[in-house]
Amino acid sequence: MLEHFCECYSDLSGPILCPVLGSITPLFIPNSRIRPIRLIGLCASLITFLYSPVPRIQFDPSTAKSQFVESLRWLPYENINLYLGIDGISLFFVILTTFLIPICISVGWSGMRSYGKEYITASLIREFLMIAVFRMLDLLLFYVLPESVLIPMLCGAKHLLFAGIKLFLCRGLVL
Q1: Which residues pair with 84 in a beta bridge?
Q2: SS3 breakdown of the chain: % helix, strand, coil, rounded to 5?
Q3: Of 60, 112, 113, 144, which is most buried, counting CB atoms within 10 Å of its CB?
Q4: CB under 8 Å to 175, separation ≥6 — which residues?
């Protein structure tokens, strides 16, 4: 049964779309029902974690080329395509990312009283963006996505000026 599942698996967008769907679902639940919001976020991140090591089964470590390459027409009038693929390093970074996000959600479990919906949504959007960074083969999106991972981190800032300074300092320290 596992071989049949692996033969059918060539889709890298599943682990990318699962956190997106998981982050949209809590938006339709009222803030007073924090328990279902937490459970949806944790289940979406766990499903993503269970789904992420599947390419490892068919992965060929003897080649340095990107494997499981998918191409989607994104902006056809500009001839910009969306290329997804995976190599040896990004395979383990995706697994590590999907392993850490459920832990992060579990650690913040007791502290989610007033902003639980926002915490879950930001965590799942961050997971989506990090997985997309490691799966993108397109140079334009590979440049844009690492910068966009910082946006959910800054959404909780009370003062936008402080958030801008924080982003500037973090960006300056990296460069």
Answers
A1: 70, 136
A2: 65, 10, 25
A3: 112
A4: none
**CA–CA separation, 67 and 104 (whole Å):** 29
DSSP three-state, residue 169 = helix
Q: Give the bridge partners for 71, in sequence order.
A: 83
Q: What predicted TM-score, i.e. pTM, was given to this entire model?
A: 0.77
pLDDT (average), residues 113-119: 78
How many angstroms separate the Cα of 95 from the Cα of each of 45, 53, 130, 168? 12, 6, 11, 29
Which tokens belong to 65? 């080329």
User: What dihedral angle (degrees, nearest 10) is formed by the CA atoms of 68, 73, 79, 80?
Assistant: -60
